[in-house]
Amino acid sequence: MAEDLLQSIKQISRERGINPDIFFSAIKEALLTVSKKYFDPNATIQIEIDEHKGIIEVYVSKLVVKEVSDPLAEIHWKDALKYDSKAREGDVIKIHLPGETLGRIAAQSAKQIIMQKILKAEQENIYEKYFQLAGTLMTGEIRRIENGNIILGLEWGEAVLPPKELSPKDSFRRGEIIKFLIKRVFSEGKGPLVLATRYMNDFVAELIKKEVPEVAENIVKIFAISREPGIKSKVAVYSTDKAIDPVGAIVGMNGNRVLAITKELRGERIDVIAWSSAPERFIASALTPAEVVKVHLVDPDNHVAEVTVKDETLSAAIGKKGVNIKLASKLTGWDIQIANRKSESGEEKQTKQ
Hints:
With 353 residues, the chain is of the alpha+beta class.
């Protein structure tokens, strides 16, 4: 029984990446507690585990004497013969916990102890491994779906992706490999300790970073992102190298890079915009795909701007259900008001959003 137990501990330790000493100390604690019911509770009980030979020993040591003055430390020589037929006065003998008792204790306590230690050790490992990875893009397989929560396999443990952390276009099945962002890592809990997200703006930023080397190398930087998950994202970028076109770097040749990101976002459209320190230029770019004629900073202190667009691009400027202008306002930090202009006559009329 002891040999099987020790082999099981070694195997679990290798599979789970948990130090076997954690299990051995727990087994010692359990054996010490229970063996006090067999020995005098005041006796000095010794527990030795030889993991190489697969042997567990639980015993008390006593000095063989003719006259016993300290029962906890001494044993009469006649009684000593029951444990060691060669025992003589002056010898120190070991009185072992009977094998069947040891086996029963191990059988009763081992499973519970090991499972408790596995859970605690795994939680500590997961926390230490993933706490510093918050905000990191990960890839994982969907192991199961429970009450709408997607459970993802990690190298160690699992991550949970709740419905509120999904984009409206996200629809997955068990076995799929998906990307996600580590949002938060909890130190303890009953379920997965790693909270995942595909909803945050940072998820889009990390997808871009993974797909675009210039962003990963900090040659092209993301200034801001505004997003309506499942519908559209607007990404403002700039370059630290004048020779590099930031928008072109994100879009890629024939749009291959931005298309790869859009595919991961299940078809969510991405507008890539060149950031500018000049508010007028930035606002005009943010309203893409509308054609902007003029930008007037109505109230620079409170960041209110009025934008004139050609009539034929008015609907594009506003977007379906106002999404385009809403995202442009979030991206720039300006309250954008639209004034459409009849391109053929030059007349203007105000339309405030």
